[in-house]
């Protein structure tokens, strides 16, 4: 407790000196308070880089509002208020961003077994699949859509499209070959 | 410490200029209120019908209402100056609320009596539009000067500070209006006064919100 009071007094004196233009005092103060800011930030944020980001924002805010500190009042209280505010702001910003984005952790993963990586990459390539289907010839596209995407039987697909079963078989076979070629080509 | 944080500290320290400390918030609020009081006093002496006002103010109910209006204005301005500093408790925002409630209550009581005495003629919108214009016309210059002062503190919660400042300014304008308001307050007037105050508080908060999101880019 006594130590805390002592620290607060030292910080308060350093800040008062910094307000009067003492740059060395200011630098010493900023270095000393970083662990305190980090502790406040880590109450709301777990990721280390996020804590660091908030810490830097708090330092920038402190710099901008340093004329509002009254040396007659406790420094730690003033600093904690700024740190909490910025920390909560960062949290709100994160929620707002996450509402518009999808986190795909597996996108950043890599496995020791190259075959496992290929599985991940193929699933990522599924995004490219739509484009590849769009690039097929119209009869091939129709065959793929009816038989593979809508999972119709050959007889159903034939009655919907008005094509013969044989023609559908040929087209779906060619379409799959074309897709494989295209997607493999993109992988390399 | 990471290299980025370290670099930031070096940059901030290397470029730090001496700063002028803000004076205590109560003193700053007092100076602004004194300046506004002087301006309003000049306006009242030049343009208001003081005899008529004296006759109306002899009614204790109107006098009570006036006191609550003015107190709401003064307390909201003090709260805005306090809240503009990082380390002041959010509870300062509660400071003007009791007098605001009493202002609304006393004003509502006056209109109720007016309705009983005069009947439904109190519902017509006549002078109310002029009152609205008056409140807004007095509020805007006051608000601009107040915002300039509040911005000096670079408040961390600008929306709250601006809303509190807006309440203060609008209440002071509503108080000033009474000197130019040669009749009792009707229901319509009360609604218009409160609408003007609410509009103004919302506008101030809106401006602050836009400014805040701009500054974050």
Shape of chain A: rod-shaped
Give the DSSP E fraction of chain B (strand runs of 2 or more residues): under 5%
Helix-strand sequence of chain A = HHHHHHHH
Number of strands of chain A: 0
Poorly predicted regions of chain A are none
CATH class of the largest domain in chain A: Mainly Alpha
Q: In the CATH hierarchy, what is the architecture of the largest domain in chain A at level 2?
A: Orthogonal Bundle
Largest sheet of chain B: none
Structural class of chain A: mainly alpha
Instruction: From the alpha carbons, calculate the radius of gyration of chain B and give it in angstroms.
Output: 21 Å
Largest interface, C-beta closer than 8 angstroms, per-chain residues: A-B, 33 and 25 residues
Question: Main β-sheet of chain A, in a few words?
Answer: none
State the distance separating the first and last CA atoms of chain B. Answer: 27 Å
Compute the number of strand runs of chain B.
0
Low-confidence segments of chain B, ≥5 residues, pLDDT <50? none
Q: Mind sketching the topology for me?
A:
The complex is a heterodimer of chains A (188) and B (217).
Chain A: H1 2-19, H2 23-44, H3 48-64, H4 75-100, H5 114-134, H6 138-149, H7 154-161, H8 165-187
Helix pairs in contact in A: 1-2, 2-3, 2-4, 3-4, 5-8, 6-8
Chain B: H1 3-15, H2 25-47, H3 50-57, H4 60-83, H5 97-118, H6 128-151, H7 158-177, H8 187-216
Helix pairs in contact in B: 2-4, 4-5, 4-7, 5-8, 6-7, 6-8, 7-8
Notes on the structure:
- The complex is a heterodimer of chains A (188) and B (217).
- The mean pLDDT of chain A is 84.
- Chain A has helices at residues 2-19, 23-44, 48-64, 75-100, 114-134, 138-149, 154-161, 165-187.
- Chain A is rod-shaped.
- By secondary structure, chain A is mainly α.
- Chain B is mostly helical.
- In chain B, helix 6 crosses helix 7.
- The longest helix of chain B has 30 residues, at 187-216.
- Chain B is elongated, with a radius of gyration of 21 Å.
- Chain B starts with a helix and ends with a helix.
- The interface between A and B is medium-sized, with 33 and 25 residues.
């Amino acid at each position: 407790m006594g130590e805390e009071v002592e620290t607060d007094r030292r910080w308060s004196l350093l800040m008062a000196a910094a307000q009067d233009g003492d740059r060395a005092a200011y630098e010493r103060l900023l270095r000393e308070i970083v662990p305190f800011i980090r502790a406040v930030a880590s109450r709301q944020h777990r990721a280390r880089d996020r804590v660091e980001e908030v810490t830097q924002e708090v330092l920038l805010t402190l710099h901008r509002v340093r004329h509002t500190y009254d040396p007659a009042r406790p420094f730690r209280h003033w600093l904690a208020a700024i740190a909490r505010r910025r920390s909560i702001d960062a949290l709100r910003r994160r929620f707002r961003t996450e509402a518009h984005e999808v986190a795909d952790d597996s996108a950043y993963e890599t496995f020791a077994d190259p075959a496992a990586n290929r599985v991940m990459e193929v699933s990522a390539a599924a995004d490219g699949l739509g484009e590849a289907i769009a690039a097929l010839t119209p009869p091939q596209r129709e065959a793929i859509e009816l038989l593979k995407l809508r999972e119709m039987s050959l007889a159903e697909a034939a009655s919907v499209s008005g094509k013969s079963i044989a023609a559908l078989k040929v087209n779906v076979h060619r379409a799959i070959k074309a897709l494989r070629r295209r997607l493999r080509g993109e992988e390399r | 410490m990471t290299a980025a944080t370290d670099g930031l500290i070096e940059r901030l320290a290397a470029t730090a200029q001496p700063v002028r400390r803000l004076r205590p918030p109560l003193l700053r609020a007092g100076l602004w209120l004194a300046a506004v009081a002087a301006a309003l006093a000049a306006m009242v002496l030049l343009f208001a019908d003081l005899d008529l006002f004296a006759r109306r103010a002899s009614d204790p109910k109107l006098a009570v209402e006036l006191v609550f209006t003015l107190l709401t204005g003064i307390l909201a301005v003090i709260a805005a100056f306090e809240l503009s500093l990082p380390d002041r408790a959010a509870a300062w925002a509660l400071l003007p609320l009791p007098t605001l409630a009493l202002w609304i209550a006393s004003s509502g009581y006056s209109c109720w009596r007016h309705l009983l005495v005069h009947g439904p003629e109190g519902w017509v919108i006549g002078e109310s539009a002029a009152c609205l214009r008056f409140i807004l016309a007095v509020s805007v210059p006051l608000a601009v000067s107040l915002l300039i002062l509040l911005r000096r503190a670079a408040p961390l919660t600008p929306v709250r500070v601006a809303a509190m400042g807006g309440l203060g300014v609008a209440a002071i304008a509503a108080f000033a209006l009474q000197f130019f308001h040669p009749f009792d307050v009707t229901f319509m007037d009360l609604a218009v006064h409160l609408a003007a105050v609410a509009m103004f508080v919302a506008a101030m908060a809106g401006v602050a919100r836009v400014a805040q999101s701009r500054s974050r880019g």
